[in-house]
Structures are given as structure tokens and as C-alpha cells.
Amino acid sequence: MPALADRLKNVSISASAVMTQRARDLAAKGINVISLSSGEPDFPTPAHAIEAAHAAALAGDTKYPPLDGTVALKAAIARKFKRDNGLDYDPGQILVSGGGKQVIFNAVLATCNPGDEVVIPSPAWISYADIVRFAGGLPVAVECRQENGFKLKAEDLEAAITPRTKWLFLNFPNNPTGAACSRKDMADIAQVMLRHPDVWIMTDDIYEHLIYDDFEFCTIAEVEPRLYDRVLTVNGASKAYAMTGWRLGFCGGPKDLISAISNVNGQNSGGISTITQAAAVAVLDGPQDLLKERAAIYRKRRDFVLDRLAGIDGLTCHKPEGAFYIFPSIAGLIGRTSKSGRRIESDTDFVLGLVEEQHVTTVQGAAYGMSPFLRISYATSMEKLAEGCDRIAEFCRGLK
Fold it and tell me: Which end of the chain is more exposed for a tag (fewer CB within 10 A), N or C?
């Protein structure tokens, strides 16, 4: 068999995808599995989005799309950035892509040379580091400690930047911790970046509408306008509008960078489905009340899970400001042995024991760059969350 490319040697399969598939495999065998591993909203796509897609298909809007997005969608995205973030982007500064991941992938390929460094606050979404490695770059993790609320501290960021730094990635509210940055937190980060004018900044704002307890979302180009010409503001429809399967991401940024990303985009795709784009126009321009309604439901789920986990010896949890994840430490359980005889030496041992003995899928913190933690997604029903927490508690009680 011919050899595969060397670039794949340092790129791993997403641990969250592996655990989600594990849940599907168990369910296919008739096992009652509780999946708390998937970062996917359990709400339906808004009806008006589906209706808009249907109308577009019936009207014959089924041909090749413009590579960077339809005129209508780019205009809707510009209105969204102005409405929600106070950012002015003209159509030439906006690009539509096949999900936020493709925006990030194409941006890194368009800008990174071998050996370039990308600073990534850690723990972080699994794909960031792998995308950087795929492009020949070097991910540089900056630890965001639990005692600091998993926030990025300005002094830690400053220490990580070198003459080889090409990008800073920001993702707040964060996957996997749910941590979010206040305006002061973001201003402190911005002050560091003003001292490093040759570094791009990518802010992944995909969870911006999933915020709780009167917390106010902010994004760095809005907090510090002097950084505007170096910031790529990334977002999408998947989390806020429950449109994961529609594959719609977008970004705003300086025209030269957008043009470069579009060039890469043109080599690995032919543009995004016109039907998806019609649906995206509908949700971005349509009623926004559902965002707060769904955030309120997520907040109740968060509080429920936090309360249940607080009663489990060995777990300690930070109260997240956003997203739909809880990232508890299991440090108090390391070194114990499960009922089946599995020795818990790591968070990976814990999540494997949990799925084997209690049929609950979570994701080990090691996959996100921080141990010993695990990620629990509460993007599912209260019934499943209650059963899942019961099973987690039972597993932990059985550790000796």
C-alpha cells in the first residue's frame, strides 16, 4: 500500500468524536447509554430557517454558490456583527465557509509557514492544535488554571509570545470549560497584543449567545478597536441556532486576510450550499428571542448538573459563565480502583471506566490539554442529565 502523508502523523482523531461514536455503537447494541460527550445542541433548528431553505430550493436556488457567500447572506452577517458586536464589516471583509472549523483551517493554511507558532489558551478545543500542526506550525499552549476560573492571564500570554508567534487564538466562552472573559479580562489581553503588532488574533465566538447570570459577552476587536485590522472574528450558526448539520460558519476581518482565506477556500471546497445560506439569512435576520429562551434552559441545566456534581466526593467544579460544558477536576479520585478492577491513574482511565461500567460517555481533559479533568456536556434533556449524574455518582462511590 502506498504511504500516507507525513503531515497526518501528528494529527489525532477528535476524542469527543470518538466518545460520541462510542455512545452510538453502544446504543446500536441495545445498551441504554447516556451521552454527555457531544457538543451539539439538542434543540431543533428554528422552523423559519427550514422554511427559508425549502422556499429557496423550490425557487431553483440550487446552483453553484459564490465562493465567499451569497450577497444576501454576507449582508445579513454584516448586520449581525453590527447588531451583536458593534463591529463594522463591509461585504469584502466577510467570508462564508463550511462551519467555523473550515474558516479556522483555511485561515491557518493561508498564513502559517513551517515553524510559525500559534498561542492557544489551554484547555482548548481539540482541533485548534491539530489544525496548526497540519499547516506545519507549532501550537504553544498557555495554561489557564482552574484557580483563575480558566481565564487567560495577561502575564501568561506575554510570556508565551516570541518572535516566531503568528497567531493568538481566543475562545471565550470556552470549549471545554465554559469560562468567559469579562470586558476587563479582554482589555488586559488586548493591551498585551498592542505590544506585538506582527501577531494575528483569531477569536472564535461560536458560543457568544450561550452566556448566563447577566454576564456580558465581548469580543476583542470591539473592546480594543486599535486591534481591528489584525483580528479575524469567527462565528457560525451551529451552536446558537442549533444548526450543526447545516455546516455554516463565517468570519469578518481585514480584506487582505479574507482574500487569502478565500483563495484557500476555493481549493478545498466549491462554496457553501445555497440552501444552507438561505436558512442562515433567515435565522440571522429573524426573531432573536429564541437565543435568550434557549440560554435560560441551558442555565437551568448547568445549575442542575453543578448541584448534583457538588455532592460527589472527589470532584470539584468551576461554575462556567457560558457554553454548555462543565469541566470538573477528578484529582481526588486518582489512584483509586473501580468495581471492575480498573485502576484510575488518569482522566482517560476514568472516562473509559465510566463508559464501560455505567454506560455514560464524557471526554477526558487530556484531550483538551489539561488533566485530571473531564468534560461533561449538558446539551441534552434534564431526564438524561439526571440519569447521567446518578450513574457518575454511582461510579465514583464504587472507587476504592
Answer: N
Amino acid identity at 243: M
State the average pLDDT for the chain.
95
Give me the half-sphere count of Cα atoms (radius 13 Å) on the Cβ side of residue 168: 29
- The answer, yes or no, to whether residue 6 has pLDDT greater than 90, is no
Closest listed residue to residue 34, CA positions, set 386, 395, 393, 270:
386
What is the maximum alpha-carbon separation in the chain?
Answer: 64
Predicted local distance difference test score (pLDDT) of residue 30: 84
The domains found in the chain, sorted by start residue, are 6-44+290-397 (3.90.1150.10), 47-285 (3.40.640.10)
What whole-number distance in Å separates Cα of residue 307 and Cα of residue 35?
19
Rounded to whole angstroms, the Cα distance separating 287 from 240 reads: 13
- For the cut 70, the answer to whether the pLDDT of residue 14 exceeds it is no
Q: Which triple of cell numbers denotes residue 239?
A: 451552536
Dihedral sign (CA 34, 40, 46, 47): negative
What is this structure's pTM?
A: 0.94
